[in-house]
């Protein structure tokens, strides 16, 4: 097999849903033994394109060639027979079956086997794991595996079905940095076998670490395509968003005016003896691995799960936070990690969501002033740069970035003194991310205290001037962001100073 032979070629692929064009004439070429990254913001057409390649959607127009042969009406079973395998974010594994059963399942379906040959299933699984260098007990139930190992099961299942093209949809979303490195080793092994690999990802640092080629989609069109070496950060962001985004680092003037002081904050099983000070102009980043206590600090400051002991001073006055009501009375706002279930009322309008935390402002003699609520929401939509036709549509109609901006607007409308944001830009595209960071820096200038809880290390280094690391419920003390880079911060997080060459 020639390594640079083209496996898949798309010509002028269009796809419409009820008159809306999701793909507007996309061309794409994927070679054998090539790692090709597909990037684009939410709603750019990436998912639609994958579904066309895997036969789940029929293209409205355009041609598909697989190994030089034109394919008419590709359906999912044909796509698998031709060697196309997609691993979606949920991996589509059966939690109540063993590793071996999950890996062998598709092969049994493809060959039309009437009965499961358990011995053969186990052999197949062991063989597949050896090929990619994965170490798992074939007899363990998949529900007991970590996210990274579930992904390994999905990859093993794909390769024993003779995958020639493996498509990984956002494969690193729930992985730690170490697991991402491990995944990259496996991807390179598959590349060396001549398998073509498409990775859907919009994190530039991860793309640089693995990709040979990059294709960027925007509004259903491919706006850029080339070797990874042709893209620097500025070009990547410009192609992705269609605008020049200047990435600035936040480094404020030092101030001694205190906004928040926390002393010996403790909640059993979550965090203990945590103390820190936030001065005027500070943006404090709190980070740590999952389960380190980083999110619990946010929950405690907002009274969701209050601390059992310790003191909190806001603008040098001691306050007590035993409930969400206490926190709101003290003008503390909280943007939760899971905006879909905690931050928004999805079936209510943008207006209802915007005024939800400050509804008492609009009560006049027991009646709500709807006109005023509408005007205020309209102002926030404009001020915060949300793309919405009016305050009336359901908030679920907004994109991730715009919904997140409105969660922030909801709290800004309460005129907070302190705003705690947990994962403020998770699942938000590059353009909105930049807008949200600008909003936060403007707030700090206006005297609001800002705490960002995040595991996005580049976000913390760029947007915070102080960083506190949580580890097993204990705090590291304050680090100056200006003296850190991502690699050093990664090592501090995992507790390793030396170079990590596993």
What attributes characterize this protein structure?
single chain, 2 domains, alpha/beta, Rossmann fold, 6-stranded mixed β-sheet, 502 residues
List the helices and strands and how they pair.
Elements: E1 6-17, E2 20-31, E3 35-39, H1 46-53, E4 61-66, E5 69-71, H2 76-81, E6 84-87, H3 99-110, H4 118-132, H5 147-160, E7 165-169, H6 177-192, E8 196-200, H7 204-210, E9 213-218, E10 221-227, H8 233-241, E11 258-267, E12 271-279, E13 283-287, H9 294-301, E14 309-314, E15 317-319, H10 324-329, E16 332-335, H11 339-343, H12 350-355, E17 363-364, E18 367-368, H13 370-383, H14 400-412, E19 418-422, H15 430-445, E20 449-453, H16 457-463, E21 466-471, E22 474-480, H17 486-494
Parallel strand pairs: 3-8, 3-9, 6-7, 7-8, 13-20, 13-21, 16-19, 19-20
Antiparallel strand pairs: 1-2, 1-4, 4-5, 9-10, 11-12, 11-14, 14-15, 17-18, 21-22
Helix pairs in contact: 3-4, 3-5, 4-5
Summarize the model shown.
The chain has about 500 residues and is of the alpha/beta class. It has helices spanning about 45-55, 75-80, 100-110, 120-130, 145-160, 175-190, 205-210, 235-240, 295-300, 325-330, 340-345, 350-355, 370-385, 400-410, 430-445, 455-465, 485-495; strands at about 5-15, 20-30, 35-40, 60-65, 70, 85, 165-170, 195-200, 215-220, 220-225, 260-265, 270-280, 285, 310-315, 315-320, 330-335, 365, 365-370, 420, 450-455, 465-470, 475-480.
């Amino acid at each position: 097999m020639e390594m640079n032979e083209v496996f898949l070629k798309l010509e002028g692929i269009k796809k419409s849903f009820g008159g809306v064009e999701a793909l507007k004439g996309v061309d794409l070429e994927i070679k054998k033994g090539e790692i090709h990254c597909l990037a684009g913001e939410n709603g750019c057409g990436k998912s639609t394109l994958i579904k066309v390649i895997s036969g789940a959607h029929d293209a409205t127009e355009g041609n598909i060639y697989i190994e030089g042969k034109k394919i008419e009406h590709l359906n999912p079973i044909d796509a698998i027979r031709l060697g196309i395998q997609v691993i979606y974010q949920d991996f589509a594994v059966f939690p109540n079956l063993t590793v071996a059963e999950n890996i062998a399942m598709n092969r049994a379906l493809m060959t039309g086997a009437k009965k499961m040959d358990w011995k053969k299933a186990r052999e197949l699984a062991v063989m597949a794991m050896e090929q990619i260098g994965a170490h798992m007990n074939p007899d363990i139930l998949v529900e007991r595996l970590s996210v990274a190992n579930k992904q390994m099961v999905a990859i093993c299942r794909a390769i024993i079905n003779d995958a020639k093209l493996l498509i990984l949809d956002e494969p690193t979303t729930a992985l730690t940095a170490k697991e991402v490195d491990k995944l990259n080793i496996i991807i390179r092994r598959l590349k060396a076998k001549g398998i073509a690999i498409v990775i859907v990802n919009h994190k530039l640092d991860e793309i640089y670490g693995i990709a040979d080629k990059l294709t960027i989609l925007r509004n259903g069109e491919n706006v850029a395509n080339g070797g990874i070496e042709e893209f620097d950060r500025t070009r990547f962001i410009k192609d992705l968003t269609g605008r020049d985004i200047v990435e600035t680092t936040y480094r404020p003037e030092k101030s001694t005016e205190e906004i928040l002081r926390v002393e010996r904050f403790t909640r059993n099983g979550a965090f203990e003896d945590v103390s820190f000070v936030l001065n005027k102009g500070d943006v404090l980043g709190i980070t740590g691995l999952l389960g380190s206590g980083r999110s619990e600090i946010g929950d405690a400051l907002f009274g969701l799960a209050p601390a059992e002991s310790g003191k909190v001073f806001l603008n040098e006055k001691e306050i007590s936070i035993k409930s969400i009501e206490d926190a709101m009375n003290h003008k503390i706002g909280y943007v939760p990690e899971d905006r879909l279930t905690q931050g928004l009322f999805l079936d209510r309008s943008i207006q209802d969501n915007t005024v939800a935390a400050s509804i008492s402002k609009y009560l006049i003699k027991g009646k709500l002033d709807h006109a005023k609520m509408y005007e205020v929401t309209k102002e926030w939509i404009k001020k915060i740069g949300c793309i919405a036709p009016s305050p009336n549509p359901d908030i679920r109609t907004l994109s991730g970035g715009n919904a997140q901006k409105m969660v922030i607007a909801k709290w800004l409308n309460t005129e907070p003194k302190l705003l705690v944001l947990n994962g403020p830009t998770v699942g938000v595209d590059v353009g909105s991310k930049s807008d949200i960071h600008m909003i936060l820096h403007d707030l700090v200038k206006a005297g609001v205290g800002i705490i960002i809880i995040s595991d996005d290390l580049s976000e913390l280094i760029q947007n915070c001037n102080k960083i506190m690391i949580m580890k097993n419920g204990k705090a590291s003390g304050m680090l100056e962001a200006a003296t850190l880079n991502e690699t050093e911060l990664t090592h501090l997080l995992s507790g390793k100073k030396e170079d990590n060459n596993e």
